[in-house]
Amino acid sequence: AQSVSQHNHHVILSEAASLELGCNYSYGGTVNLFWYVQYPGQHLQLLLKYFSGDPLVKGIKGFEAEFIKSKFSFNLRKPSVQWSDTAEYFCAVSGAGSYQLTFGKGTKLSVIP
Amino acid sequence: KAGVTQTPRYLIKTRGQQVTLSCSPISGHRSVSWYQQTPGQGLQFLFEYFSETQRNKGNFPGRFSGRQFSNSRSEMNVSTLELGDSALYLCAIPNADSRGGYTFGSGTRLTVV
């Protein structure tokens, strides 16, 4: 069975600090990987996704993620966070050719001005 | 125009009652999936419908059911509501690039009292 683990439940950063959110997955096959963001009171939005090719994926709003196959990881990064990045971030995985997602429990990010 | 419209946005029901939630994807999408989001369990897959047929089902009791109509609109029904059914219920359609992942609706916030 697939599973996704997000290491941090709640991360608090000051503006301009760098961000890295950890995500590890367990799946016995080719995977598609995603990061979603949920801003307070808003719906889930896709930040970025990895299907194949370059393991460094760039998404919206300056976010990027690196797929490290040997570590089963897909960590999310941003060099300098802003107050507007305050949100909950979800890592998710699907098997190749499948749309069904398995989500991590999420990491709440609070950015202090 | 939003990819997925869910109604109602908020709902309060009493334990033991049943509830029906609605999801309308933009035209042309034959696949609709439902997820439950709770603070404790995170996002969990409920079921997927494709061309009016249930294609996949998550690990939820039989009280949770759904259906899809010929115009792609989908409903999910929860019977004999329990307090633990309080959650945000999300409807999703596959991303346009057809390679995995979803576009999510804003959800229906169900509170069971």
β-strand amount of chain A: over 45%
> What's the story with the biggest beta sheet of chain A?
6 strands, mixed
Q: Provide a count of the helices of chain B.
A: 0
Spatial shape of chain B: globular
How many whole angstroms does the radius of gyration of chain B measure?
13 Å
Low-confidence stretches of chain B: none
**Tally of DSSP helical segments of chain A:** 0
Distance between the termini of chain B: 34 Å
Which properties best describe this structure?
heterodimer, A: 113 residues, mainly beta, six-stranded mixed beta sheet, four-stranded antiparallel beta sheet, B: mainly beta, seven-stranded mixed beta sheet, 11 strands
Short description:
The complex is a heterodimer of chains A (113) and B (113). Helix content of chain A is 0%, strand content 54%.
Overview of this protein structure:
The complex is a heterodimer of chains A (113) and B (113). Chain A is an all-beta fold and 113 residues long. Helices cover 0% and strands 54% of the residues of chain A. Chain A contains no helices and twelve strands. In chain A, strands 2, 5, 6, 10, 11 and 12 form a six-stranded mixed beta sheet that branches. Chain A has a four-stranded antiparallel beta sheet with strand order 3-9-8-7, with no helix packed on it. Chain A is globular and about 40 Å long. The termini of chain A are far apart. The mean pLDDT of chain B is 91. With 113 residues, chain B is an all-beta fold. Chain B is globular, with a radius of gyration of 13 Å. Chain B starts with a strand and ends with a strand. In chain B, strand 5 and strand 6 form a beta hairpin. In chain B, the strands form two sheets. In chain B, strands 2, 4, 5, 6, 9, 10 and 11 form a seven-stranded mixed beta sheet that branches. In chain B, strands 1-3-8-7 form a four-stranded antiparallel beta sheet, with no helix packed on it. The interface between A and B is medium-sized, with 24 and 21 residues.
